[in-house]
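Figure 2 data, in text form.
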Amino acid sequence: MKKITTVAATLFMLVACNKDLSKLNVDTKNPSSVPSYTLFSNAQKNFANIVADVNPNNNIFRLITQQWTQTTYTDESNYDLNTRAIPDTWWAIFYRDCLRDWEEAKKLIPTDVLDEGQQKNELAITDIMEVHAFYILVNTFGDIPYTKALDPTILFPPYDDAKTIYYDLLTRLDNDMANLDESAASFNGADLIYAGDVSKWKKYANSLKLVMGMQLSDSDPEKAKSVVESAAPGVFSSNDDNAIFHFLAAPPNTNPVWVNLIQSGRNDFVPASTIVNLLQQLNDPRLPLYFTTDPDGGYSGGEPGSGNTFANFSHVADAQTAPDAPYTLLDYAFIQLTLAEAVERGMSVGGTAESHYNAGVTASVEVWGGTEADATTYIAQPSVAYSTAEGDYKEKIARQEYIALYSRGFDSWTTIRRLDYPELPEPVNAQSAFPVRFTYPILEQNINTSNYNTASAAIGGDVVTTRLFWDTH
């Protein structure tokens, strides 16, 4: 019996030795390969997270545009971009956490997806998201790495000309829309914005194209007219088309506003007097939808750039600080206000400037929780009505865009730079004039030095007052 047991044990050991023990080296919690849709979804989440963020280490556009201001630490409200290396973080998150994942997803989709129609849709939608990310980067810095930026074999990518990039992005959007097939499937639930609705993505692409085209209206009016008129028939047609990212109620996929204002337990921000005073002057129904009342029962904002006392002022409304509060990436209200400007500039987009203006204001009031009646009463005021509101068409439209783009700091910054309105008061300890671009990341200066120097010279100097190619005045 002992002999039989010994032989059996020996045979077991021989079999065990022949097993593939290399599997023990596989880290199941960190896979070496992932499906394309996982990369796509992850990049969407990272994209929404950075544009919605309020952490002063990452995204300070609410502070630059004086939607909010700070209490204890006031550097960013005073246009200090470099103490926290904010350009580095903004740059890195878009390139590393968004664009790289989308680019990898595009490489995997042809093998992951067998249906040709679905494959084309997923490639087009992924590219539309890339276009939006590059649009933000080029409008933040100017010349940036583009054609070689996502090539992993190139450690020090050269910078491309901003205008050339911009025009190529428009071409990519046209190609993407031509490849979208509404009769075929796409990402379905892996698409965290439209759940794979191809028709919505086509409207998103046209709406982004419209905004991009309007941005060229001063630097290249002929091109702007062509782009805008081409896009206008296919843009968002109601608030139902809005591109909204829905955060979740449980960490780590929660609304960044909740993370930084509630979960953190910090009291670093209050509304800025700039926007609060404007809303009060116009009897704007969005005032209580944006902010809470102050200790006196009214509404008040802190002085931009000053060390404001948190308890003395209004605060961000509760709806925005919920852990699962959604964030709008692009919306119908903004598109309608853009169309109002298009009419004023002589572009054939249908309707009148007033009709688009009214539709944009109404859509904004309603999407924030107001009613159509609220909007009608508001627009009827001489200070708001298109025919009687103060200023020329640029001021009227920019004023309402500024209000409608509350919480969307980057888009608000772009409106201010493009239309030169509203005119913001200088922060109390401003470190520079109003920044019309970000300086390049310090890491680029130190590591990609030769290409950085070339780009800096090409744009006219790496300072915050260097205007981008479309910003002609």
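Caption note: The two ends are 98 Å apart (CA to CA).
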